[in-house]
Amino acid sequence: MIDSRILDFIGEHHVLTVACASRDGELWCANAFYVFDKEEEGFIITSEAKTRHAQLFLENPQVTGSVVLETEEIGKIRGLQFAGTVRRCDSGLFDRCRLKYLKRFPYAVFKGGEVWLIIPDRMKYTDNRLGFGKKLLWERG
């Protein structure tokens, strides 16, 4: 079970950075609006299949990423790093994920694109409010 402090942080934000790589080691990253699906324990994002990162998702589903709070105050620094896999949602999962995404971002109805689910295998959450450099770790069991 994911620590509630990690889930709270994820719920307070809506943009993540996802980094991906080709099989040959070409690196790329992208920013995306997300909704976290507690049932799937994953980040729902949308992106058109023609984008560079979506093409790399299909070539190599291993990704890393982060969600960060922008602050210059050291005592308030918080951020999440994750590593896992990404997959394109299809059939029933597509409908369910798309609905959750549209509920959070209704204007996305005007935007096409594929629905993707990033499933973290591990996450590291840093929260300086809990003590300087305090980290909470989570790994899929």
Describe this structure in words.
- With 141 residues, the protein is an alpha+beta fold.
- The chain has one domain: Pnp Oxidase, Chain A, CATH 2.30.110.
- 22% of the residues lie in helices and 43% in strands.
- It has 3 helices and 8 strands.
- It has helices at 4-12, 52-59, 91-104; strands at 15-21, 27-33, 35-37, 42-47, 62-68, 78-88, 114-127, 135-139.
- It is globular.
- It starts with a helix and ends with a strand.
Topology:
Layout: H1 4-12, E1 15-21, E2 27-33, E3 35-37, E4 42-47, H2 52-59, E5 62-68, E6 78-88, H3 91-104, E7 114-127, E8 135-139
Antiparallel strand pairs: 1-2, 1-5, 3-4, 4-7, 5-6, 6-7, 7-8
Distance between the termini: 9 Å
Order of helices and strands: HEEEEHEEHEE
* Second rung of CATH, namely the architecture: Roll
Looking at how many chains there are and whether they match, the oligomeric state comes to: single chain
Structural class: alpha+beta
At the fourth CATH level, what is the homologous superfamily? Electron Transport, Fmn-binding Protein, Chain A
Overall morphology: globular
Number of domains: 1
Gist of the model:
This protein has one domain (4-139): Roll (Pnp Oxidase, Chain A), CATH 2.30.110.10. The protein is built from three helices and eight strands; from the N terminus they run αββββαββαββ. The chain has helices at residues 4-12, 52-59, 91-104; strands at 15-21, 27-33, 35-37, 42-47, 62-68, 78-88, 114-127, 135-139.
List keywords for this structure.
alpha+beta, 141 residues, single chain, Pnp Oxidase, Chain A, globular, eight-stranded antiparallel β-sheet
